[in-house]
Design a protein that fits this description.
Elements: E1 2-6, H1 11-22, E2 26-30, H2 40-50, E3 54-57, H3 65-70, H4 72-92, E4 97-101, H5 130-150, E5 154-159, E6 161-163, H6 176-184, E7 191-194, E8 200-201, E9 203-205, H7 206-219, E10 226-228, E11 234-235, H8 236-247, E12 253-256, H9 271-277, H10 285-305
Parallel strand pairs: 1-2, 1-3, 3-4, 4-5, 5-10, 6-9, 7-12
Antiparallel strand pairs: 8-11
């Protein structure tokens, strides 16, 4: 099968591409440098080049709390337009199936824990990442509307916060795990973290996420969104202490309570994924963190020093 992976050179995309190729699929990797998917003509050219039989739409513009606060308009526009173009061109090209990744940021700020897919519309997302979350949620609406009107088959998955080798360790727009690893590896000084450490998150190892996408592509054809996660809730304070332990960080962790915490709690009900296509995360959190730290020491840190 000829598979198109948007964002195929990125964090999740590169792991999915490896998994698909190992399964014998012919994979077309669409990278941002070649196709600006916010431009319809670029997206149209990508479909013409790829001739896909299945599309995995992973391309996104996203970052941590700071990046979301700095780029609300851009993140809303870019993610909305990319998703809309993918849905429309899958329709025009009669692609049998499109797999779209959403975001846990789409859930309302005060969603009861664990987050169930049926709660998705019960309120507005947490303010710092609402434009990104709302844009992604709009693509779910589009996928369902296209299914109703045109008979297209687009499924929508909601992964928990991802982490793992090849993550984004950028100085200003990394998510919490790579940001903590970058700050703590090789440091003996003070590390300042936003908020008070009380918010909770759920973290999914990137290889498990790629496995979930592959399983859903093979086994699920429904209109309803599906969570991908572990069902394990971890506080940011506990996360920081665990990464300090794994990296050997002996400095002081300082909580800057003048900065935002973000959403108070995040943890997913993952029963629908298990029931519908047999997905269960396999990687223990501490093991996944250790593998991520090892990759950072070997690759990102060495690259920065060169």
């Amino acid at each position: 099968m000829r598979a198109l992976v948007t964002g195929g050179g990125g964090f999740l995309g590169s792991h999915l591409v490896e998994r698909l190729e190992a399964a014998g699929q012919d994979v077309f990797v669409a990278r941002r440098r070649d196709y600006d998917l916010t431009r319809f003509e670029d997206a149209e050219r990508m479909y013409a080049d790829a001739q896909p039989e299945i599309v995995f739409h992973l391309a996104a513009e996203v970052g941590g709390i700071g990046a979301n606060r700095s780029n609300p308009g851009r993140y809303w526009y870019a993610n909305l337009m990319m998703g809309a173009h993918v849905l429309e061109l899958s329709r025009l090209n009669e692609v049998p199936k499109t797999v779209v990744t959403g975001t846990v940021c789409a859930y309302p700020k005060f969603t009861p824990v664990p987050f169930r897919e049926d709660d998705l519309w019960n309120g507005y997302p947490e303010e710092t990442n609402a434009p990104y979350g709302v844009a992604k949620k709009s693509i779910l609406v589009g996928a369902q509307a296209y299914r109703d009107q045109y008979g297209t088959n687009a499924i929508f998955l909601l992964p928990a916060n991802l982490y793992g080798p090849r993550d984004n360790f950028h100085l200003t727009n990394a998510h919490v795990i790579p940001d903590l690893i970058r700050k703590m590896v090789g440091s003996t000084g003070e590390v300042v973290l936003w908020g008070d450490g009380s918010p909770t998150r759920e973290f999914l190892f990137v290889d498990d996420a790629a496995a979930g996408l592959q399983l859903a592509a093979e086994r699920y054809d429904g209109a309803e969104p599906v969570n991908l996660g572990t069902g394990v809730e971890t506080s940011i304070r506990e996360l920081a202490e665990t990464i300090a332990d794994l990296t050997g960080f002996e400095g002081e962790i300082v909580w800057d309570t003048s900065m935002p915490n973000g959403q108070p709690r995040r943890s997913l009900d993952t029963s629908r994924a298990k029931e519908l296509f047999g997905f269960e995360a396999k990687t223990r959190f501490r093991d996944g963190l250790a593998r991520t730290i090892a990759w950072y020491r070997e690759h990102a840190l060495a690259h920065a020093a060169s």
